[in-house]
């Protein structure tokens, strides 16, 4: 009788059992198809977040720019978490958010973002009056983001994380709010030009709504 080798079968079985299931979601955590997910991949508009467990790879498609409005009590809570003494009488609140160490923030030299903070703030002031905050979730690698020039403060009670940054978006993110609590979030790697763009957009929207 011809002997049948069991080794290829065992290798095939081990391969099959080692394969992880892959699923796809949008930012509302509704399931989407792989085809739709791949067709929407565009780093300028969307972020691809991936979470891996022993048996599952979860891919989440997140829009980089998101709009919303905070209720008055929630907006008050946010402002209290940022400062208990600030009057918040400016037209905009700009908040830079540092999530902690990740492949983007794993550094051995100082970041260029925030290096020339005064020219950045001066240009922002030409767009509108503002309050500016620099907030971190975790201090890891923050020493490379100019803490000698920038007053970084912790995310008190995880208020910002719960309101805007429920995922760990790579690099850093920011949110711009107006006096009524309308906001625009931008997730993932960004620079001063992105802050200027969204500040102009929110200023224009506010002026437009008040002129009606």
Entry keywords:
212 residues, alpha/beta, six-stranded mixed beta sheet, three-stranded mixed beta sheet, 9 strands, 25% strand, globular, disordered N terminus
Would you spell out the secondary-structure blueprint of this structure?
Layout: H1 7-18, E1 21-26, H2 34-40, E2 46-52, E3 56-63, E4 65-69, H3 72-82, E5 92-98, H4 117-127, E6 130-136, E7 152-154, H5 159-163, E8 173-178, E9 182-186, H6 192-211
How would you describe this structure to a colleague?
With 212 residues, the protein is an alpha/beta fold. It has a six-stranded mixed beta sheet with strand order 4-9-8-5-6-7, covered by helices on one side. Strands 1-3-2 form a three-stranded mixed beta sheet, with helices on one face. Strand 2 and strand 3 form a beta hairpin. Helix 4 packs parallel to helix 6.
Précis, in short:
The protein is built from 6 helices and 9 strands, in the order H-E-H-E-E-E-H-E-H-E-E-H-E-E-H. It is of the alpha/beta class and 212 residues long.
Average pLDDT across residues? 87
Helix content: 25-40%
By DSSP (H or I, 4+ residues per run), the number of helices equals 6
Number of strands: 9
Q: How are the strands ordered across the major sheet?
A: 4-9-8-5-6-7
